[in-house]
Write a structure and sequence with these properties.
Layout: H1 2-14, H2 20-32, E1 36-46, E2 50-57, E3 62-69, E4 73-74, E5 79-80, H3 83-96, E6 104-109, E7 113-119, H4 125-136, E8 147-153, E9 165-173, H5 174-183, E10 190-196, H6 197-207, E11 220-226, E12 230-237, E13 240-248, H7 258-271, E14 278-283, H8 290-296, E15 302-307, H9 325-328, H10 333-339, H11 357-360, E16 370-374, E17 377-381, H12 383-443, H13 448-472, E18 477-485, E19 488-495, H14 498-510, E20 518-525, E21 542-548, H15 556-563, H16 567-575, E22 582-583, H17 592-605, H18 607-622
Parallel strand pairs: 1-6, 6-10, 11-14, 14-15
Antiparallel strand pairs: 1-2, 1-17, 2-3, 4-5, 7-9, 8-9, 11-12, 12-13, 16-17, 18-19, 19-21, 20-21, 20-22
Helix pairs in contact: 3-5, 6-10, 15-16
């Protein structure tokens, strides 16, 4: 994970494009500090077009500088004829575009030998080199020329040495690289990378976004490159090569369209790979048109063609106005890939100057003074310049820190402290109010759950009482008043006999929680009977009773409730013993029969008074009198009143 992160950071730094105006100011500033800057120039060589110089603006995505010069090439031996001509053309490029001759150079050369190999994971770099050399030396090109090889590992996890190590490698004549470097020594430029054109083409396709879908893992696709005297087919799985095939072909020996039939027939077996989804055709020779070849190839794949020759009709990349359209059409895919060396991090890296993987993991610039690469600009720093830059950068960083300290310490902090103190005072005042309200709520607390439970219990109790009374009230007993409160229970009524009352009282105590009930009062009533019932036949006398759990609930309240009288009238009736005959409640242990016997005895004792009163009442009734024997006015619904 950290390796990928480091590669991404390095790619971002490389892809940074310094604007020209900023670059000029920056270079002048660095020169004052004792540091030097170097520009990186990208050169591509192809046997068909010669040398190409391309410079691109990565931010704008356009080609800003382009030129090409023909350079004679030996196709049979696959090498440049004259290295001095190479150096001359390079010098003219520098002069034409006002480039410093001491710039760094990235060079892409025509592919000579390319292949894939798998070696044991335990092999060291020197042993891997020997294996590749033994493979390369089988080619006729290296029978008389010493090979220079470079390789890159395709195995993502190289820590497990028990697994084989898959490699992609390339080879070139060693005297070609030595001849180019030696010829350019007098110029003063420095080659930081010399790579195979196959890698440049892959990077160019990636940079232009032409294979964006193909570069996903698991996607099989093929790249076919037609060169001056051969064609090659590279099968890829995303960004990883999995197969390579190259077929030498004397293309100049074919007449007219015979070359297309020859290429189509000889490549059909490889191109008809079932799992391959697309084919990219790239022609680097004027002898073959990639467009015409795409029509000749019989394949199920989606075919895309790119002509880097005289058949090219459109520029591969947008160019600045300084470049003519017919010149822009000559820019090859390999030249664009070389120019994108600093801007595209394609995973395959083959550098003939640094053969091994370990060497390529070091910076592309020479060891010595500290060098930093920003896009295509190299900055070389000496110890003195580093100290000066560090001092300047430190001062620049301290100035805003000092300003921030002054602003916070002298202006913001006092205001914030005042706000904090004010807020603390407000919080304290609110807490006091909350405390006072809490005390008030405790004093007048209303618990709705308790109230609901209380009401439900009262309702249940009332329903039970009414249901019970409906079951036990006899037909000769009437309840005229009943109340049940926290003070106690009170029931008032009348009955035809004491026996009925005591039966009702006994049954009432047997049901529910009525053990505390007492028959507090029992007496005759001499009030109008229609206040109680409306019957066809009303008994001559009724017994009034009072059952309660709190004897103090009776008296005036009882009389006022039963007869609908005022407080004064009720007090008069209660305090006048002549208005009623009271039968005392039997003491504990007396039977119902004994109580009835006492009540009958009391009734006989007053019978004489009742008879005399009745005679006087009859006489007055015959005279249509509405006045009682003692002068009281009777109610219109009664003809007589008897007192006991």
């Amino acid at each position: 994970m950290f390796e990928n992160l480091a590669e991404n950071i390095q790619s971002k730094i490389k892809s940074f494009q310094v604007p020209p105006e900023v670059k000029a100011v920056f270079e002048n500033f660095l020169s004052q500090m004792g540091a030097s800057t170097k520009k990186t120039v990208t050169i591509s060589f192809s046997s068909n077009l010669g040398l190409e110089l391309v410079e691109i603006d990565n931010v704008a995505g356009i080609v800003t500088k382009y030129a090409n010069k023909p350079l004679e090439y030996d196709s049979s031996n696959r090498k440049i004829y004259n290295y001095n001509e190479f150096a001359k053309d390079l010098t003219e490029f520098f002069e034409e575009f006002d480039i410093s001759p001491t710039s760094n150079v990235v060079l892409s050369l025509q592919n000579i030998y390319f292949g894939l190999i798998e070696v044991p994971g335990i092999l060291q770099e020197d042993m891997i080199k020997n294996v590749i050399l033994s493979e390369v030396e089988q080619s006729y090109i290296f029978k008389s020329n010493e090979p220079l090889v470079t390789w890159d590992s395709l195995t993502k996890d190289r820590r497990d040495k028990t697994k084989p190590n898959s490699l992609v490698y390339a080879a070139i004549q060693k005297d070609v690289v030595d001849g180019i470097i030696e010829a350019c020594q007098n110029i003063g430029c420095k080659f930081i990378s010399i790579e195979d054109s196959h890698v440049s083409i892959l990077r160019g396709l990636s940079y232009l976004g032409l294979i964006e879908n193909q570069l996903k893992d698991g996607v099989i696709w093929q790249l076919m490159i037609i060169a001056q005297n051969s064609y090659s087919i590279l099968t890829m799985n995303g960004t990883t090569p999995i197969d390579y095939f190259e077929e030498p072909l004397a293309m100049k020996s074919f007449q007219d369209d015979e070359i297309y039939n020859a290429i189509s027939s000889s490549s059909s077996e490889i191109l008809n790979r079932e799992d391959s989804t697309s084919l990219i055709l790239v022609s680097e020779t004027d002898l073959v048109s990639a467009e015409l070849l795409s029509n000749q190839i019989n394949s199920h794949q989606m075919i895309q063609f790119i002509d880097c020759n005289k058949y090219s009709q459109n520029a591969l990349m947008q160019t600045s106005l300084d470049i003519l359209p017919e010149i822009a059409e000559q820019i090859t895919l390999s030249a664009i890939g070389t120019a994108a060396y600093a801007y595209n991090n394609f995973p395959i890296k083959l550098n003939f100057i640094r053969e091994t993987v370990a060497e390529r993991e070091v910076s592309d610039f020479a060891v010595g003074n500290l060098k930093v690469n920003l896009g295509n600009l190299e900055i070389s720093l000496t110890k003195s310049s580093v100290r000066k830059l560090a001092l300047i950068l430190g001062s620049i960083m301290l100035i805003p820190l000092l300003l921030v300290y002054l602003i916070i310490g002298q202006w913001i902090l006092p205001k914030e402290l005042d706000k904090s103190n004010s807020l603390a005072a407000n919080i304290e005042a609110i807490n006091r109010q909350i405390s006072d309200l809490s005390e008030t709520n405790k004093q007048a607390y209303f618990d709705i759950d308790t109230m609901i439970d209380k009401i439900i219990k009262q309702n249940k109790k009332t329903l039970f009482q009414y249901s019970t009374l409906g079951e036990i009230v006899p037909k000769n007993l009437w309840i005229t008043h009943m109340e049940d409160s926290d003070a106690g229970f009170l029931m008032v009524g009348v009955a035809t006999s004491t026996h009925v009352i005591y039966d009702f009282y006994k049954n009432l105590k047997l049901v529910g929680d009525n053990n505390s009930l007492t028959l507090s009062k029992l007496s005759f009533t001499d009030e109008p009977l229609d206040n109680f019932v409306s019957l066809a036949q009303i008994p001559e006398s009724l017994y009034k009773f009072e059952i309660t759990s709190a004897p103090e609930m009776g008296k005036n309240n009882l009389v006022r409730s039963v007869f609908n009288l005022g407080e004064e009238k009720a007090e008069e009736i209660v305090s006048n013993p002549k208005s009623r005959v009271t039968v005392s409640v039997p003491p504990a242990g007396n039977s119902i029969e004994e109580v009835e016997k006492d009540a009958d005895s009391a009734k006989k004792t007053d019978s004489t008074k009742k008879t005399d009163t009745t005679k006087n009442a009859d006489t007055k009734q015959k005279a249509n009198s509405t006045t009682s024997s003692d002068g009281e006015k009777l109610p219109p619904n009664l003809k007589k009143i008897e007192k006991f």
